[in-house]
Specification:
Organism: Thermomonospora echinospora
Low-confidence stretches: none
Protein name: Acyl-CoA dehydrogenase
CATH class of the largest domain: Mainly Alpha
InterPro entries: Acyl-CoA_DH_C, Acyl-CoA_Oxase/DH_mid-dom_sf, AcylCo_DH-like_C, AcylCoA_DH/ox_N, AcylCoA_DH/ox_N_sf, AcylCoA_DH/oxidase_NM_dom_sf
Mean pLDDT: 96
Keywords: Flavoprotein, Oxidoreductase
Number of helices: 11
Shape: globular
GO molecular function: 3-methylbutanoyl-CoA dehydrogenase activity; flavin adenine dinucleotide binding
């Protein structure tokens, strides 16, 4: 069974959610649909066209969009919770949705008011799904200036969303300068070639393979944040990294929550007590009780920190012109702390659940390994040791993290 064959509700007949609680509940409905065949879809690793259609039909893709154009009109703390809820069922789709939110918001982070108002209105009206080809570890895409037009050429080894997206965010450097340019282009542009080479152990449905960019043409007027070919800088421009890092935090925690809830259900119904333990039910085994208590306490703590940091970060999005380097740096330190906790807790939960579920739970049919594979794959995105260093250097030396592609 695939997601395309699952009979979900007729979303068009449902009222659009209005409150954060209603949007999180809508995400829970989507998650329930995804959970019904998550193991099979993970094994097949097929391009998730149907899954993205589900995100569109349910309205989740419009969550951050302006209400007057058909969007949800919600804020980032709600978006993070929605990502977490979807990731409980499917880490890949949680990642895709979180990246979509970031790239949709990137127009506001980097662009002029005229640019981002246009992008957000079009995205909400048309339910665009965003992908991005902005991997900073690769050589920069080179941009040629041809008067009124920019021409992008290069290759990126990662392009999350790729074929399932409607639009793709490109980034490159103007030839002969150090000026970076972001622009949004149709994902069907003939100059974009997606190579279908994403073949990792986890996050298998994220369509994160490489892309070749060949003579993709963009009008200068669409170069985000540029006026008369000059960039208009703000400290707020650098909030893309803390924002996406909080996306990571929340789909890690969502994966961990999914692993824990799935394991608890398995233990309640199928785990057998140890024959020498003196108990008739696995749920009465003291060491099993201890494992679930320990993992739950750790996860609840990490979730609480993530929610608190998300609320702290809301001020920056509501007051973009008041963001200072000091405030931005201190927020990044808090985000780093949430990232450290989420990484360590998610890996621990996804790995230790087997101690409580037992040997029979390791069959491929159960698919419990997918939680660990998913969180292990993406937590290698950038070394968590450097997040700990950001915190320590700030506390001991009062040095703020320098804004980079990773901090």
């Amino acid at each position: 069974m695939t997601t395309a064959e699952i009979s979900g509700p007729d979303w068009s007949t449902r009222e659009t959610p209005r409150t954060p609680e209603e949007w999180i509940a809508r995400a829970g409905e989507v998650a329930a649909i995804l959970a019904s065949d998550a193991v099979e879809r993970d094994r097949a690793a097929a391009t998730p066209y149907a899954e993205v259609r589900l995100l569109k039909d349910s309205g989740l893709v419009t969550l951050l969009g302006p209400a007057e154009h058909g969007g949800g009109g919600q804020n980032w703390p709600t978006a993070y919770r929605v990502v977490r809820e979807v990731a409980k069922a499917d880490g890949s789709i949680g990642q895709l949705l979180g990246y979509h939110y970031l790239w949709n918001w990137a127009a506001r982070l980097v662009g002029t008011r005229e640019q981002w108002e246009h992008v957000e209105a079009e995205a909400a009206r048309n339910r665009w799904f965003f992908g991005g080809a902005v991997n900073p570890r690769d050589d920069d895409v080179v941009i040629r200036d041809e008067g009124d037009t920019l021409v992008f050429n290069g290759r990126k080894s990662f392009s999350t969303g790729s074929k399932v997206s409607d639009v793709t965010v490109l980034e490159g450097v103007l030839e002969g300068t150090d000026k970076h340019v972001f622009a949004i282009v149709p994902s069907g542009d003939p100059g974009l070639t997606f190579h279908d080479d994403w073949d990792n152990i986890g996050q298998r449905l994220t369509e994160s393979g490489s892309v070749t960019i060949s003579d993709v043409r963009v009008p200068w007027r669409d170069a985000a944040g540029y006026v008369d070919k000059e960039f208009q800088p703000r400290v707020y421009n650098t909030l893309n990294v803390p924002t996406i890092q909080l996306v990571f935090v929340n789909f890690y925690l969502g994966i961990a929550r999914g692993a824990l809830e799935t394991a608890i259900a398995y233990t309640r119904s199928r785990t057998r007590p140890w024959l020498h333990g003196g108990h008739e039910r696995a749920v009465d085994e003291p060491y099993i009780i201890d494992i679930y208590g320990d993992l739950s306490a750790a996860l609840w703590s990490a979730e609480a920190l993530a929610d608190q940091v998300a609320e702290e970060g809301l001020w920056f999005h509501e007051h973009p012109d008041e963001v200072t380097e000091r405030l931005r740096g201190e927020h990044e330190v808090r985000v780093a702390a949430a990232k450290v906790q989420a990484t360590e807790v998610a890996l621990e939960v996804a790995g230790r659940i087997f101690e409580a579920t037992g040997a029979r739970s390791t069959t491929s049919r159960e698919g419990l390994d997918r939680f660990w594979r998913n969180v292990r794959t993406h937590t290698l995105h950038d070394p968590v040791a450097y997040k700990r260093r950001e915190i320590g250097v700030y506390l001991l030396q009062d040095k703020l993290p320098e804004p980079t592609w990773y901090s």
